[in-house]
Amino acid sequence: MLRLPSSCEGCPFYKYKDHVDNGFVPDKIVQGSEVFFLLQNPGKDEAEGHQLIQRRYHNGTGHSDVYSTVHPQPLLGATGQLFNTRFLPLTGLQRGEVSLGNSIRCRPGKALGLQKADELPSITSTMKLEHSKADIVNALKHCKMAHFRPPESTRVVVTSGRHAMFVMTGLSRDEDEYHKKQSVLESWRGYGVELDEYNSIRTVDTSRYHTLQAGKKLVFMTMHLAALFYGDNKKYYHAVLQDFHKIKRLLNGDWPKVMPTWYRMPPDTWPKYAAFDTEYNPKTNELYRWSMCSSEGELYCVEADRSSVIPVEPGSTVIIQNELADFRRLKGLIDVKSIKIEDLMIAHSTLWTGEPHSLNYINSMYGQLNRYKHLSFDNPEFYSAADSWEPMNIWRNEFLPQFRADKQSWEVYKRYRLPLARIINKAQETGVMIDSTRLGEVRDILISRIEGYKDRAREITGDDKFELGGQKQMREVMYG
Q1: Residue 277: what pLDDT?
Q2: From CA 162, how far away is CA 183, in angstroms rounded?
Q3: Which CB contacts under 8 angstroms, 24+ apart, belong to 235-242?
Q4: Pairing relation of β-strands 35-39 and 156-160?
Q5: Angle between the N-to-C axes of helices 418-430 and 323-330, in degrees from 0 to 180, rounded to the nearest 10
Q6: Cα separation of 187 and 200, whole Å?
Q7: What are the angstrom distances between the C-alpha of 64 and each of 42, 44, 53, 127, 342?
Q8: Among 284, 341, 283, which residue's Cα sits nearest to residue 312?
Q9: Quick one: pLDDT band at residue 213, thresholds 50, 70, 90?
């Protein structure tokens, strides 16, 4: 392993330079490369220069590995092999065409009292890149200034994981109330920002829309590949595959697209096929503005005080991100009795059941625009117009082709799931009449059946304490 160089002096972790697990891993620089992948910190294989060539699994009893010996560098172990064979090819690039580095280039975890040598202290939402006194922040800044030397040819730095994202952008918390419900990495994954300089220590300006124009220094954010195999992060595997494909589109100039200008007055007639969205006060239900995009790309963003009833042809289709939120406001603009509704959120939850279904997430997978969902106050018209332009593109170019390839999911969506939205809407407006006597009878039937299922499960398993609701027990019985 390589010892920490003298340039590491001044880092809070330098005092652990003689720790057995604290090998130094320099960046792998490829002159002329357009993409620099910046990760978290190295593992044992990276520090020791052991590159995993092949891993063979033996019927659930473990695996055997074949290694070659190389100079210590990022992405040599199992994550590196996955990067080389599964993810990087989606960008249209090979390993020898990209530069690689880590945000922290040593392994101080054990010395810091963490479980593993290649762990790092967490970045919290209160940490500020410019002036936080936390050791992890100071270590990230020192490591960047001492060792981060991207080639002049670098067009995009791809950050993999939260530490890399933080040191390149300073983003540690989300600006809008909705996305504070998830981590900042989850809400910015699949998007990019523009920088003045790669080596600056400054939080990026997110009060504007980042167009990611050619000639700008760009940072594109995704999740750490190793994290995709742990806990709740597993649901993002498909999304990160899409991220790597999007890197190819970014390099080719195919993403992001430029949104067309929009009309501020409503149309004389409603289009036969359109996407629709509203902005309103959730506490008072007061409508601020609405937006609509036709299948021909005509875009409208109309303030509430300019709205009027618009004629609509029977049988017309309206695509809504969330029918439960917007249907009652659509009723104030057109006659909804004879139209068809498509719901983007219900469609996505049918096609990709285990994933998140917010518009920010769906846009990060399939959208034509860079992230805009944080601009509701700084650029409200753009925000509103994009909320109908993106669903129209996604519905036509992504979801309909996916449904054509998966006709059973289309049947589930149209026959069982989509009608529920209209039923729930009606129930929210009129209330639900309940037959309490019949409800009690159904409850008794359900309880009786559940007890029967419990008895049968215990008979099958031979365990008189077996619980159907115990996930661990159920998995062990079903899958071993």
Answers
A1: 97
A2: 9
A3: 235/354, 235/355, 235/356, 236/186, 236/189, 236/355, 238/352, 238/355, 238/365, 239/189, 239/190, 239/355, 239/361, 239/364, 239/365, 240/87, 240/189, 241/86, 241/87, 241/90, 242/190, 242/364, 242/365, 242/366
A4: parallel
A5: 60
A6: 23
A7: 22, 17, 11, 42, 50
A8: 341
A9: confident
pLDDT at residue 175, as a whole number = 61
User: Left, alpha or beta for 253 (phi > 0: left; psi -120 to 50: alpha)?
Assistant: left
- Residue-wise pLDDT tens digits, 6-54: 999 999 999 999 888 889 999 999 999 999 999 999 999 999 999 999 9
Structure tokens at 415: 């026959």
Q: How does pLDDT run across 69-99, given as a tens digit for each residue?
A: 999 999 999 999 999 999 999 999 999 999 9
- Structure tokens belonging to residue 8: 């590491």
- The reported pLDDT for the residue numbered 178 is 54
Phi, psi (deg, nearest 5) at residue 397: -90, -20
How many C-beta neighbours within 10 Å does residue 28 have?
A: 22
Task: Give me the helices (H) in 18-91, please.
Answer: 44-48, 78-82
Q: What is the pLDDT of residue 459?
A: 94
Q: Does the pLDDT of residue 179 top 70, yes or no?
A: no
Handedness of CA 255, 261, 266, 269 (dihedral sign): negative
Sole residue written with tokens 């031979």: 462
